Amino acid sequence: MADAKVIPFGEEPRSRRAGRRAQGRGSKSSSAAASSAASSASEPASPSSSPSPSPSEPPSGPGPGRHSLASVPEQPDAVEDRMADEKHGPNDAHAPGPEAPRPGDSSWDRRLAEGLAFLRRRVTGDYEVDEFGYDKELTDQVLMSLIRPLYENYFRVEVKGIENIPSDGGALVVSNHSGTLPLDGLMMQVAVHDNHPAGRHLRLLAADLVFMLPVVNELARKAGHTLACAEDAERLLERGEIVGVMPEGFKGLGKPFGERYKLQRFGRGGFVSTALRHGVPIVPCSIVGAEEIYPMIGNSKTLARLLGFPYFPITPTFPWLGPLGALPLPTKWTIQFGEPIPTDGYPPEAAEDPMLMFNLTDQVREQIQHTLYKLLVQRRSVFF
Fold it and tell me: pTM value?
C-alpha cells in the first residue's frame, strides 16, 4: 500500500497526455484544412451570421463525463447542392442563368409600337408623297400586307429571273396582260417588292379607267401607279425607277378563254421609244396562271356600253353566282423575268426610227411568247 502511486482525479499519465496533445493537433489541422476547402467552395459567411462560442459552453472534446456531439444529417437541399457542385464545379453552381425575356421585348410589342407610330404619322401628316401621289410607307406597311396573302397563299406565285432586273438605275419591265381583272399587275408588283435583293419598287403604268373609278383611283396613286403615257414614264425613268408596262392593254385583259396565252398586238411600240430615249434596258416578263382565274366564255357588249367598260365578262360562275362568282380560281402562278434587252448602245435619234422600234418591239414580244410556251410545258397542272 505504501508503494502505490496515487493519481489525482482528472490527471493522466504523461505518455497519455502527450498522445492526446498530438491527436488534438492533428484533428485541428485536419479541421482547419476542411474549413479552408469549404470556404473556397462557397462564399464566406458574414461575421454577423457566424455563431460565436459562449464562454460558459463546455469544450466539445472527449473526456471524463463528456460525450461527443452527434453529426447532424445533411438536408436534401444540401445534398443536391453538393452533388451539383461535384458535377459542375463550385463556381458553376452559383453562376447566374440566362436572363428571362422581358415582356417589353416581344415581337408583338414592337409591332404594336410601330403600328401606333405609323398611325400617329398618318394623323399628323408626317409622311412623304411624291409628285405622282406615291406613298411608300403606306404601300410597304399596309397595301403590300393586304395583297401578300393572295400572292403567297392563294396563287402561290413562283418567281424566276428576278436578278435580271438591275439593282440600280431605271429599267422598263414589259409583260403580258390577262385574267379579265388586272390582278397580274398587282402580283408582279409584289414579286419585285418582296424578292428583289436591292429592294426595288415597281411603278406600274395603268389605263385611264383605273383613275376614273372611286376609291380605286386613290389606292392606285398611293401604290405608285400612274397614267400609261410617255410623259409619266419618262419622268419616272429619269428618276431611276423600275417602270412596268403591259402593252396589250384591254385587248389582252379581256380576250376570250379560247385565246389564252396568245399575245395580242403590242400597240405602236411607244414603250420602246421611251426606253431608247433614256437608254434603259427592257426586261421581258412572262406570267402564267392569270389566264385561268376568270375563264371568260362570253362578253356582254350591251352591258359594257351601259357601264362604260371596255367589256363585260361572262364566266362559268359570274354573274350566275352573284358576288361569289367574282371570286378568282386558285390557280398556280409563275412569273419569270427574262434577260434584259439593252438600249444604251443606240444613238439618241434611234427613238425616231420606225423600223428599229418595230424590230425591238417584235423582239420583246417574241421573247415573252416563247417563255410562255416554255412555262406551259413545264407546268404540271393549272392548280398545282
Answer: 0.71
Mode of pairing for the β-strands spanning 334-337 and 282-288: antiparallel
Which residue has cell 428583289?
196
Predicted confidence (pLDDT) per residue in 151-163, tens digit? 999 999 999 999 9
**Amino acid, single-letter form, for residue 113:** A
The pLDDT of residue 42 is: 41
Which pLDDT tens digit goes with each residue over 330-365?
A: 999 999 999 999 999 999 889 999 999 999 999 999
Three-state helix/strand/coil letters over the chain:
CCCCCCCCCCCCCHHHHHHHHHHHHHHHHHHHHHHHHHHHHCCCCCCCCCCCCCCCCCCCCCECCECCCCCCCCCHHHHHHHHHHHHHCHHHHCCCCCCCCCHHHCHHHHHHHHHHHHHHHHHHCCCCCCCCCCCHHHHHHHHHHHHHHHHHHHCCCEEECHHHCCCCCCEEEEECCCCCCCHHHHHHHHHHHHHCCCCCCEEEEECHHHHHCCCHHHHHHHCCCEECCHHHHHHHHHCCCEEEECCCCHHHHCCCHHHCCCCCCCCCCHHHHHHHHHCCCEEEEEEECHHHCCCCCEECHHHHHHHCCCCCEECCCCCCCHHHHHCCCCCCCEEEECCCECCCCCCHHHHHCHHHHHHHHHHHHHHHHHHHHHHHHHCCCCCC
pLDDT in tens, 155-192: 999 999 999 999 999 999 999 999 999 999 999 999 99
